[in-house]
Amino acid sequence: MLEKLRKWALRLKKQVFVLYFAYKDSRTPWYAKAFAVCVVAYAFSPIDLIPDFVPILGYLDDLILIPLGVALALKLLPSAVIQDCMEKAEARVQGGKPKNWLVGSLIIVAWLAVGVGGSVWVYRWLAG
After folding, report:
1. pTM exceeding the 0.70 threshold for the entire prediction
2. What are the residue ranges spanned by the domains of the chain?
């Protein structure tokens, strides 16, 4: 079972790289590029929307959101683009995963905004 899970994760990683290369391909429609760049940015982000240390929910985004986003994005791509990008992805998977610090920073800002907003709400609720 562990070997099956490892193969699934490797296949998913290749598919994320396919999306990465498809975004750069001129044959990819604009709407597919927009969706693909969102999925790739989230997958390569060093910061998760739900941090991994949050029990159960922390890994749900990795187990559900990324595979779902990849599947939907691949459906939007022309098959010729997928085939060409699959070859590039095979070579790139060997090099590891790039980090997207911009998206990570945006997620940190979002969490800070939630924290500040929640703190203000609690303060007003306790003071009122």
Report:
1. no
2. 2-100
